[in-house]
Design brief:
The structure holds 2 protein chains of 2 kinds.
Chain A: H1 10-18, H2 21-42, H3 47-63, H4 65-78, E1 81-86, H5 89-102, E2 107-110, H6 114-118, H7 121-127, E3 131-134, H8 137-145, H9 161-172, H10 180-197, E4 200-203, E5 207-209, E6 214-219, H11 223-229, E7 233-239, E8 243-244, H12 250-254, H13 257-261, E9 269-273, E10 287-293, H14 297-300, H15 316-320, H16 322-327, H17 338-349, H18 351-354, H19 366-370, H20 377-390, H21 396-409, H22 412-432, H23 435-439, H24 449-453
Parallel strand pairs in A: 1-10, 2-3, 2-4, 4-7, 5-8, 7-10
Antiparallel strand pairs in A: 5-6, 6-9
Chain B: H1 3-16, E1 20-23, H2 30-37, E2 44-45, H3 51-55, E3 63-64, E4 72-76, E5 79-81, E6 86-90, H4 99-102, E7 105-110, E8 115-116, H5 119-124, E9 133-137, E10 142-143, E11 151-152, E12 159-164
Parallel strand pairs in B: 1-12, 2-3, 2-4, 4-7, 5-8, 7-12
Antiparallel strand pairs in B: 5-6, 6-9, 10-11
The chains are: A alpha/beta, B alpha/beta.
Chain lengths: 454, 165
């Protein structure tokens, strides 16, 4: 298939990934460990009931999204935060840069955030002369390596311990070690200084609470807490669909997110941050900015792919996907990989760029089975595949082949003729055709199933 | 669920999250237990905000008012959650919530009455004007970012002791 130059080069990326044995081993280890731990923690709970409740709540928010956004904005403002509503990525980046510029801040510590990847925030800030320090251990590793995340919750999972050891020795000038404890201690020492010297922290948000104007952050390392409580300025950037009606709804999601993501009952740290430090308090930023990003959500919510906005970014569909498990996240060459990533890339970047990614699904349905909020991923992927054809993003040869097959399959005489021809011509095709691929196709037989049963 | 069962569930779940639960029968025992647990710490921070915090006796030469310099932090929780084995800290009363994060050993004092059975019980109790910062802490700081190998204490404490009284 010939991809227009604008499309993601998924096939070439996948071929490269499949021949990288270290990557294959790392991906197998990570996705299997995550999937097994998830299965263990969900086996003892009423999962279906929880999924239904969470899905219903997400839909309720999507049905009245703009009202919930207004409510969140009012309450966050009441709690002392400054809320910036932004349409697109560019506007969001510029607002964040201008906040930092206004304070003369040249260094920020950052807690892992996929939305900041979506708007390419780090590159932008660095070009403006701001040093951005990623503080999640995995993000720190890939930042030093100059790479993007390959998994939405375990960004450096494509690297093994020896690769990280070499990277640290080379870039940080420390002695080589491949012991994760030693490597984590090296990062901790460096990052601790950064936390206490940075004048601003940037975080994402796992959820935002409409009734109280709070943002909710979940981490295992504690870097999210550091970024939001040590520097005097905190900037939280989040997309509008992260909103949950009230704090009393939060447990429904908090029970599902860590279980689906890492197979934990709860992540080590969860922070509910409501505005700025009040009189008499010793915790909380003195200045808090919430950058509420639309970036296409208001349009998506009106269309047939609206349920994609229920996603809580747990990564369970990545770990369950037979394609992601083999090729890893970088092959998708997009902010979000895996099944949810294919749909989001098509919605956010358009079919012209995303269409080759629709080959990265077997439509097996595993993603839909594990989704904690019941995003109908198999249906969305199927529908996008139809759209790919309708919009003309399949190769001429494939279009002609499918049209030809359609014609033949509608006529029993043509179909019989086709089967007979396939059987007769098979030895010739074997000789002149691409050998490897024809070897994987079942050999056409003279006595077909239809002949046996009729 | 009876109070006794809630407490047992809480203790079980703190242990599952790799915290070290210690149960004492009265608050009188507390100082002895603290002295034993903190024997290896050089500098200890305690916010001395709650009655229980004010009642504890720690060797004055080991105490610091600068939580960033402390290797251990001792404090009483705002609440706890049995369902998840979580400790709840808030900015209410002027406590620096980050003190329990920057130390290497965090010691939490949990009174039996402060334990909620479920996350719902706790979050429903907050109303719509919560304190600026509410933090749930469930086990020590951890990461699996290298080969999924469990690595403890990456940014926060590597040891979490939970004293239930």
């Amino acid at each position: 298939m010939s991809d227009p130059v604008t499309g993601v080069p998924f096939r070439a990326n996948a071929i490269r990934a499949l021949s990288d044995s270290a990557l294959r081993a790392a991906m197998r280890n990570a996705t299997e460990t995550f999937a097994t731990k998830r299965a263990e923690t969900v086996s003892a709970v009423p999962l279906e009931e929880w999924r239904d409740q969470a899905s219903d709540l997400r839909l309720r928010v999507l049905d009245h999204l703009s009202d919930y956004v207004d409510l969140f904005e009012r309450n966050a403002t009441r709690a002392g935060a400054k809320v910036h509503r932004t349409e697109g990525a560019k506007e969001a980046r510029e607002i964040i840069a201008s906040i930092l510029r206004g304070h003369g801040i040249a260094k920020v510590v950052k807690s892992k955030s996929m939305i900041s990847e979506e708007i390419h925030l780090n590159d932008f800030l660095q070009k403006q002369g701001v040093k951005v320090v990623e503080t999640d251990f995995g993000e720190y590793i890939i930042q030093i390596a100059g790479e993007g995340p390959s998994h939405i919750i375990a960004p450096a999972i494509h690297k093994d311990r020896r690769q990280v050891g070499k990277l640290f020795a080379e870039k940080l000038g420390c002695e080589y070690s491949d012991d994760p404890m030693v490597l984590a201690a090296i990062a901790k020492k460096i990052l601790r200084k950064e936390f206490f010297s940075a004048k601003a922290g940037i975080s994402g948000a796992n959820f935002a609470i409409a009734d109280s104007g709070s943002i909710v952050l979940v981490t295992n390392e504690g870097n999210g807490r550091m970024c939001t409580s040590i520097p005097p300025v905190h900037i939280a950037v989040l997309s509008i669909e992260k909103i949950v009606p009230s704090l009393s709804d939060l447990p429904k999601f908090i029970r599902l997110l860590p279980r689906s993501a890492t197979g934990q009952i709860l992540s080590s740290y969860m922070s509910v941050i409501t505005g700025t430090r009040k009189p008499g308090e010793s915790t909380g930023a003195e200045e808090m900015h919430v950058v509420l990003l639309d970036n296409g959500r208001s349009e998506i919510v009106k269309g047939e792919y609206r349920e994609m906005l229920k996603c809580i970014r747990c990564g369970a569909c990545l770990n369950a996907c037979p394609v992601y498990r083999l090729v890893g996240g970088h092959a998708y060459d997009s902010t979000y990989p895996g099944p949810m990533g294919i749909v989001l890339t098509a919605l956010l970047d358009g079919m012209e760029r995303a269409h080759p990614l629709l080959d990265a699904t077997t439509l097996c349905g595993a993603c839909g089975d594990v989704c904690p909020v019941k995003v109908p991923l198999p249906r969305l992927l199927h529908s996008l595949r139809e759209q790919r054809v309708e919009k003309g993003f399949t190769s001429r040869l494939e279009q002609m082949g499918m049209a030809g097959f359609g014609m033949v399959a509608q006529s029993s005489s043509l179909f019989n003729l086709g089967q007979a021809a396939a059987h007769l011509l098979w030895p010739i095709a074997r000789k002149i055709g691409p050998k490897d691929s024809l070897d994987r196709i079942p050999r056409p037989v003279s006595k077909t199933f239809r002949k046996i049963v009729s | 669920m009876t109070r006794g069962k809630i407490i047992d569930l809480f203790i079980d779940n703190t242990a599952k999250a790799a915290a070290e639960p210690v149960r004492i029968s009265s608050s009188d025992e507390l100082n002895g237990v603290l002295a034993r647990i903190l024997a290896g710490s050089d500098l200890i921070f305690c916010p001395f905000v709650t009655e229980q915090e004010k009642a504890i006796k720690l060797s004055p030469d080991k105490l610091t008012r600068d939580y960033t310099a402390a290797s251990a932090c001792v404090e009483e929780v705002f609440a706890a959650v049995a369902e998840t084995g979580s400790l709840v800290w808030t900015s209410q009363g002027g406590k620096p919530v980050q003190a329990g994060l920057v130390c290497t050993h965090h010691v939490a004092m949990v009174s039996e009455e402060s334990i909620h059975e479920t996350l719902d019980d706790f979050f429903s109790s907050l109303g719509d004007s919560p304190p600026t910062n509410i933090t749930l802490e469930t086990g020590p700081s951890r990461t699996g970012d290298i080969e999924m190998t469990l690595t403890i204490g990456v940014h926060g404490p590597s040891r979490l002791t939970v004293i239930v009284f």
